[in-house]
Write a structure and sequence with these properties.
By secondary structure, the chain is mainly α. It has two domains: 3-78, DNA polymerase, domain 1 (Orthogonal Bundle), CATH 1.10.150; 103-256, Intergrase catalytic core (hpI Integrase, Chain A). Helix content is 57%, strand content 4%. The protein is built from 14 helices and three strands. It has helices at 3-16, 20-35, 46-53, 59-78, 103-111, 118-133, 137-142, 170-181, 201-212, 216-229, 234-241, 246-249, 256-267, 269-276, and strands at residues 148-149, 152-155, 164-167. The protein has a three-stranded antiparallel sheet, with no helix packed on it.
């Protein structure tokens, strides 16, 4: 690894307090950039970066890598490693609503999981746990048995290393208790694999794909969408999700629009008049 990239990584970890996953993403982006040309990093020009980014077709991927690159060169400039600052604008990306599943769809899939062994009971518990808590898959991987207490989950390894506590629905707690009662190991992790090691992100992804045909993050979207459609306050949802900015949470408000129109057409007296015209 380049000394400059290593120094930037230490800066992100110590000064900015980024999570390990965020740090890894930054470093991987910069390592890709570093190996894309024979030039030294300090000799890069805007044209070199544009050429590097052109190999990625997805605008969101390009923007993520560009954010890493802009932050890196800003760091170099601030510490006088480089006299120039490279700052390229991000590409516009279409606004997309988060994919989410209806409550009935999720519960039907859960009911179809036969609890014939502890692995099946674990799979059932994971799906209900993700849907009942809205936590990120990385947070589920890091969850310990001791983190569940009196119907609350202590999320100690959230994004940006922020802690929070979230309530967990009773149906999920029951499923987790039944699963834990079948375990005979001393692993403190809440979820484990057949080797009794901590379950990985990939394994959880495979579980949700198997039963729901979606990624674990869709269950997080489903959790948030259910709260918003149920009338929950946006700031409460922000706190439950662990979003640092309310702007991130506001994407879920768009889900309300078709339901608001349906409510208007059902209950407003003028809408009823329209039907009689």
């Amino acid at each position: 690894m380049s000394d400059l990239i290593e120094a930037f990584g230490e800066y992100l970890l110590i000064n900015k307090g980024v999570s390990k996953n965020t740090l890894s993403a930054y470093i991987n982006d910069l390592e890709q950039l570093n190996t894309s040309s024979k030039k030294e990093l300090l000799a890069y020009e805007s044209e070199d970066i544009i050429l590097f980014l052109s190999q990625f077709s997805n605008p969101r991927t390009r923007n993520r890598k560009l954010a890493s690159i802009n932050a890196f060169f800003h760091f170099l400039n601030d510490l006088d490693f480089s006299a120039k600052t490279i700052k390229l604008p991000s590409a516009k990306t279409p606004s997309t609503l988060p994919l989410y599943l209806e409550y009935e769809t999720i519960m039907q899939s859960v009911e179809n999981i036969e609890p014939t062994n502890w692995i099946a009971m674990r799979d059932r518990a994971i799906i209900l746990f993700l849907y009942a808590s809205g936590i990120r898959v990385s947070e589920a991987v890091n969850a310990k048995r001791e983190d569940l207490s009196d119907g609350w989950l202590r999320v100690r390894y959230g994004k940006g290393e922020k802690e929070r506590v979230v309530p967990v629905a009773n149906i999920a707690l029951i499923a987790i208790t039944l699963y834990l009662n079948e375990r005979n190991d001393d692993n403190p992790s809440l979820f484990i694999n057949y080797k009794k090691s901590t379950l990985s992100r990939i394994s959880i992804f495979k579980i949700t794909k198997k039963y729901l045909a979606v990624s674990p993050h869709v269950l997080r979207h489903s959790y948030a969408s259910g709260l918003i459609l149920g009338g929950a306050d946006l700031r409460i949802v922000q706190e439950l999700l662990g979003h640092s900015s309310l702007i991130t949470t506001q994407i879920y408000t768009h889900i309300q629009k078709p339901h608001l129109k349906e409510t208007l057409n059902t209950y407003h007296p003028l809408a009823k008049e329209d039907k009689n015209i």
